[in-house]
Design a protein that fits this description.
homooctamer, about 220 residues
Chain lengths: ~220, ~220, ~220, ~220, ~220, ~220, ~220, ~220
């Protein structure tokens, strides 16, 4: 299917309207794509754009990417690769990325790095889970400074509700698949967050730091 | 337990800090409470506040409420009762409430009425599901005017993704329990929305127009 | 099957060893039994014992019970009927029954009434959910006095983890089926509690205030 | 069990009536079979037939197959091996295979290759998901030319509903297991497609491009 | 919202393009709509069209419908109301509606009545489940005459696979919620049909005779 | 814990009453046990018994077993190791092991080998799934000779119902985890078999050829 | 559809071969059928047979049945109606029906009455659940006399495993939907029984006393 | 983020209040943490404390730990590493750790080792599952000596209910993921234990020997 493949790259050129429509740049979601496919799409995008972001990028994908864009940077924990930085409006706006535990950090980094690349200031506040609330209270003033709060938590995901009851900013909850057996791949934290008793909490997909960042960037772009 | 009950009302007085902490007023969630309990809590709140909102209120609950607050208003479709209107900042901000079908209107009304009572302008755009995309496109300019978009959809919930790919505003998706058998009480739409391929979509609980409104009010309150 | 039925009552007489074996008296679980069956079993038990407890008893069951035991008392919210009070060891021990919301009170009452009938002191601390943590902190000294803490919560059940991180006593978590759609009949709170990040929390069945009380009575009976 | 094995091959000879009964040739489903078993069955079929199709064939299976049928061809992405091409009626009929993303291409190729081998013309239209509807609209005239449309999509699977509302041809939806956590191995897309608000959409098993092709071939064989 | 309501009816006028786009007329799905809403929409449609179909219509809905369209007919078992009959192409094409048991007849009637109203000939072949295969074989010649076969089955849904292995026509499987406990509201039959070992079987939502009919009408409309 | 381990082996000696109680010999279930543990238990059993059966035995386990029992035999497909053959009553009784496909053979072999080792005659009838019923009918006379029929099937598991409607012998259904995505690890076949419309079908755990054989041996041991 | 209905009754005449094929008589499963349909089918059967059994029969169904068969008998708890008694071979064989609790008796009666009507002797042993094992041991000698044991249990269904480890007869386990929240309509007992650690236990559908009886009758009919 | 990392270690110093609050020392949960992270946190804790416990520790983690704490001990089966032993009150109290099978021993060891390190006496009673109740009865006197009983069981988890009906001590049930297909990763045992018919049983997460030990230590610390 060589012609098809070129069509696909042609398409990539055609979607330069995504930013215009949605206020967010086009991004390559690497899961299920070969390194060659990612590199090909990246090459096409970079012909027209100076910024590129690839989510769920393995190191192998990054190597392929670097072949077409030597200036590409790789954020290992965040599994994110990028070229340049997006010119976002409202760079003054601040996003707090909060985790319940150290084990949630990889997903939090995906959110934080993505938000930074998309032009926001980020404050990382990690390991302040509800088993030791004083840790959360110690950082609460910082969290309250943010315009949007992303809460990343596995296990029972209770941190989202607790933070939701303490801050004025909207809270985006990211359930993670961290935990013992009945976590069921993040289902426990997901259901917990969806049922939050605190108002002003909404939820993205399990382990999806990337989607949380997109939502946070859109929210904090409001004029 | 008459003493306990009074304690509870005492507590209600004590939580006057909710608004200060979270930027949203205290609200009575009526499910699982007797009309008498709702009325008792309402009476205690109204001693201190001029605004009251009761979600998931049956007509029976409303009657009990009117006994202690004759000026209370009832929004039948939205199952919401209220006294007064909250003094929100940023009343200039606009929320679009969009539904896929007519059957989703009750949940949408819960969102719309709540948002209005909490001080936002609301534009209702109903029955623009993806089975007939031209209906959505006809209303798209209106939707694009909003600062936040709430998408209410049952069945497969595809409207959230489609809208998410067409607007700059953040999208809050509300899955509803409308549909045939394998909808499984809203699970189909819920999973669909959580897996949205469009960036900038987050999700609240099934049939929870109220939570969507809280999130939208918080988002649109950003300075 | 009239002979069978008598056999069944004969058996009831034979299980007088339950108390000896398990340290808890025999109890009638009324779900799925006709009022007549409950009354028949009660009559047989009361020939040998001065104490009787019937859980999940409807008012109709209670009426049938009163026909054979006029001194029976009915606790409506707790759906529990009883004759007398059990002679428990260690009546000095205290159980705190804590709820997240007012809607969880019926299940909490089942736990509290059962524990009281089984010879424990009970302190009810209702409506201290995590959406307003200051309510919990205001009652924390009381909770810390208890030898065992029962936490009853629906929605996301986060209260169990938060309490678990604040007290020395073992925590028994009771998920309730209170909440919006994706609560899935209590599944959300159940999974949340099973995945609690705080050590020293264990869980009983959804809406099972009765089992929580049994566990708490056994724990607080330790010498 | 050497005698049994021969029986099995004898059976294979006996099912030459499948084509007569169902209008589709016998096919080897390779999952759970050893390369030797596949080769043995293939050998028996090829004694009587000039066409052979093996689905879910690994490269290892293909190597074993080539030992008994050197002319066998392997379609790597489609995990499909074949000898010859089936003599189908109505070769004029056209099937469109449409995917939401590049990550769905492997499953789409299974559908497309199978349909081609079974005697249909196929038009591949890849990466036209609902996050950028203009891509879909650009290809819509082509899709509308097809007699049957196969829509392959993971994540929330919304593309099936959108296409279903835009074309006259019947739509066969194939959910894929592509996506983040709450995709639950394709469950999200499966439920989404089953609940499609558009009429004229039916669904096959997760990741089953092969079954979609069989259905499409049967449909497009109608006189 | 009186203005909104009119908008909605305005929209209904605007969707007269559905037939042009999808080859199927607009239909009112009555679940979750009040009888008044259904009647209002029907009135608007009938101003422009001579044919009207309302699915999932209760008798109460039908009464409201008759007030605006006295010639409306009601099919009780099928829960379907209609005015007139749609002018379909290819009225020569035949659809077989096959059920496993008598208990599946209501869903089968929804499929059969819908298909007839949409201009197809229908042959009803009921109660030929796999527990007594001779019943199926006795009717097999009739089933083989059909251009499309709809198989309606609850319990284990095995009939879909068996029919799929015996006919040349494409098979549309409709799982029903008929059965004992572990049927789980039709889930057992749904999964069974999705996993059919026979090629050329696709599946619609649980209890959705309507969607099966739409798919069958689209398939049998192929030129 | 060396003393503990010996206790454990002592216990093994003590359970020589299993055969007396249940009519079946003690068996070692190897999953989750180290090769050393299996060998140790085997050694203890063989001091008292001349027959040994180890289910779910990997080749590694078999090697460890052969060190303590050089005469041990290994059935690779069946993942079963054994020493000797059990002296069963009623060796005249016949068990038919029937599979839907070739992919189900490994589980079927576990059932067949186990039943043979436990003293029954077994007739293997493989690959007679419902997609080609004539294959089943060709073997039906043989199946009807059996005193018990074990049906092993993955995918939709329809074969159990079909066989159940054709034979006088009781049918034991074994769902397998063979199949495409929505098989969900055997859940589809499991639910299908539990919901069988044919009387006289009961079900064992997914992939549990061993339990099917135990049940079949018990049934066919009836005097 | 009056002609259809007659066809259906004609069919009923045709299935007189069920007994010949499966060794069990034809039975009317009443769920989802109207009383009129049941009566019509019954009338057709009784023209040819002297025995009739209707499962899941409501009292309303029974009244309709009595109109065509005045000698019909109704077993209320078992929800079973019958005319006559089937002439079974091996009436000497004994089936034990064992329940964990009094709440499981309705399902147990369905099994017991069905087995008796199908010509077996039945011994009812009710309320011997594992919470008080001495009750089970007191009845164990009786249970050991049976040729087949049916164990009916809700909640955690542990009784099936315990009985399975104590008797030589094959055990048929019937999960019931009795229990608190996380029973999930019988799912807990179902999974528990499928995972029984005792060999020689197989499982039928939730609450399906009828299927357990069919299996038990088939097993105990073995020569 | 080197500064962040130090913050994190700073936090570790700050949570020295955990013991004061909850009566249990701080513990490192190693899942999802790199060996370097674990070692870093351990180093910080050991600056202030003489006791350290790391759960879910791989051998690789242990090696990293030994680099900062050469006296660290590793319990392989229990996947637990430790430095020193905690000074618990009430070292006279005894915990019985009971397993159904040998395959459950790894989880049981996690419970037993943790409880010992936290200052309790432990009696291990392994492989006394309900398939052979005499094994349990042989050890029952020992079990009855314990102040708390931990029951570890996979498959159907029936042992928890049986023990719950035989002892006065509170029972903590730990479901394990050991078993065949429909165990669904421990779900079967989990639901079984939550639905236990015996009073005084509560449940922790699947495979979570660690949480069971924490609960048992808290319970047995009651004065």
């Amino acid at each position: 299917m060589p012609e098809k493949y070129i069509d696909e790259l042609n398409y990539a050129m055609l979607d330069s309207s995504r930013e215009e429509r949605t206020g967010l740049p086009e991004v390559i979601y690497c899961s299920g794509k070969t390194p060659e496919q990612v590199a090909g799409i990246a090459e096409a995008i970079l012909k027209k754009e100076s910024f590129l972001l690839a989510s769920r990028a393995s190191r192998e994908v990054y190597e392929a990417l670097r072949a077409v864009a030597p200036e590409a940077v790789y954020y290992e924990q965040a599994r994110t690769a990028a070229v340049g930085r997006w010119k976002a409006p409202r760079q003054d706006r601040l996003i707090a990325v909060v985790t319940a535990g150290t084990s949630d950090v990889a997903i939090a980094e995906e959110a934080a790095v993505t938000a930074e690349l998309l032009g926001r200031r980020v404050n990382r506040i990690y390991d302040v889970g509800v088993a030791g609330l004083h840790r959360l209270f110690a950082r609460l003033p910082e969290i309250r400074e943010a315009h949007v709060v992303i809460v990343v938590a596995g296990m029972e995901g209770a941190l989202a509700s607790v933070v939701g009851g303490l801050v004025k900013a909207p809270v985006i909850a990211v359930p993670t698949s961290i935990g013992y057996g009945a976590n069921f791949g993040g289902l426990a934290a997901l259901l917990s967050m969806l049922n939050s008793c605190a108002g002003g909490v909404s939820v993205v997909n399990i382990d999806s730091g990337f989607n949380a960042a997109c939502m946070a960037v859109k929210i904090s772009g409001i004029e």
